[in-house]
Specification:
The strands form five sheets. Strands 7-8-4-9-3-10-11-16 form an eight-stranded mixed beta sheet, with helices on both faces. The two termini are 33 Å apart. A hairpin with a 2-residue loop joins strand 1 and strand 2. 33% of the residues lie in helices and 20% in strands. The chain has 350 residues and is of the alpha/beta class. It is built from eleven helices and 16 strands. The longest helix is centred in the middle third of the chain and has 17 residues. Helix 5 runs parallel beside helix 6 and helix 7 packs parallel to helix 9.
Length: 350
């Protein structure tokens, strides 16, 4: 939906559309035959009074960051969760809002499965972990296996509730984990938050072209709605893990596999112990076309860096833990730390 001359006009509208907020919406000659005619005619006109309430709620939030992706399965929610953990560890007050209505994975990635939202006289209270306030529809489902089968208006309604009815309190950062693509949820969060000031969006991708094709659409979406692209993160940028973490197999001609890890480790210890300190890396996705870095140069947006596919990071996400505590995520944690430091420095958000 474009906003030109203060008129909200659906992308599939007829020529000379008066705008959805006009008194003539759905009633003028230009509306005849438009697929939006009935909805526009019956919709309430004028400014949305809830936007005033949202602005009041967001007045205590310094920075608002959207985390987007063109495709699902690129690690966007993992990045949102670890970004929140990292900011909280830097003594920032952090809120994490999950607006992936049909696939809410943030409760799992923060170790908050089974928690419930509580009501206070100030509104809904976020669920807290490590001083991070978290809100997700995942806390509202009677059964975690329940499917959320909602049309656009109902999704928009719950997102609006999360913004106007949740008492976030004083926050340095509100991280918004959005679903993949550029659909209802994305349009809604931009419309609801735009007047309160969105710092921008971080876009997460994997290196191969099939992902970058969709990321280009995500960048275009941000430019169309006036949201700054804070940077692109190339996630799963090669499988990297210590040599000692690998399982070694001997494969026969008929496809049978024999575990020879113990034998291989003994050989390395005896013949080449220096190999045991190495990290082995392998390209999982084809990045021969230049990956996210080249795409960023082509589209004129910042490239924040690469995060390797680290099994230890995957395990931390499954267990709802920070990858920055301890030294287990020795491959991915430094990469994430460098990206977050660059994000804060380049956008003066410290």
């Amino acid at each position: 939906m474009e906003n030109g001359n203060h008129k909200e006009i659906p992308e599939d509208a007829n020529e000379h559309c008066p705008g959805t907020q006009s008194e003539d919406a759905g009633k003028s000659d230009a509306c005849a035959g438009c697929p939006n005619q009935e909805a526009c005619a019956s919709a309430p006109k004028g400014p949305d009074p809830d936007l005033v309430v949202i602005a009041e709620r967001m007045a205590t939030v310094k920075h608002k960051i959207l985390v987007l992706s063109g495709k699902g399965g690129v690690g966007k929610s993992t990045f949102s969760a670890q970004l929140s953990f990292a900011l909280a560890a830097m003594d920032f007050q952090v809120g994490l809002l999950d607006i992936d209505i049909c696939g809410p994975s943030i409760p799992k990635m923060l170790g908050l499965e089974g928690q419930e939202i509580h009501q206070s006289n100030l509104g809904w209270s976020p669920v807290f972990v490590d001083s991070i306030g978290v809100m997700s529809i995942g806390f509202m489902l009677p059964d975690p296996d329940d499917a959320v089968i909602w049309r656009g208006p109902r999704k928009n309604g719950i997102i609006k509730q999360f913004l106007k009815d949740v008492y976030w309190g004083e926050l340095d950062f509100l991280v918004v984990d959005a679903p993949p693509g550029t659909s209802d949820e994305h349009i809604s969060i931009v419309q609801f938050l735009k007047e309160t000031g969105i710092d921008g969006a971080i876009i997460v991708t994997t290196p191969q072209q099939v992902s970058l094709i969709d990321v280009r659409k995500e960048v275009s979406f941000c430019k169309k709605v006036g949201i700054k692209v804070l940077g692109v993160v190339e996630n799963m940028s090669g499988l990297c893990q210590p040599v000692t973490d690998f399982k070694y197999l001997k494969q026969s001609k008929n496809g049978d596999q024999e575990d020879v890890t113990r034998w291989a480790m003994e050989i390395m210890k005896e013949k080449a112990p220096e190999l045991l300190d190495l990290v082995a890396c392998s390209e999982v996705f084809d990045s021969s076309a230049g990956g996210a870095a080249k795409m960023c140069r082509d589209m004129g947006v910042p490239f924040l860096g690469k995060v390797p596919l680290d099994p230890k990071l995957c395990k931390a996400a499954e267990e709802g833990k920070s990858c920055f505590s301890g030294e287990e995520c020795g491959v991915s944690a430094p990469a994430l730390s460098a990206i977050i430091a660059k994000l804060l420095k380049d956008n003066t958000m410290t």
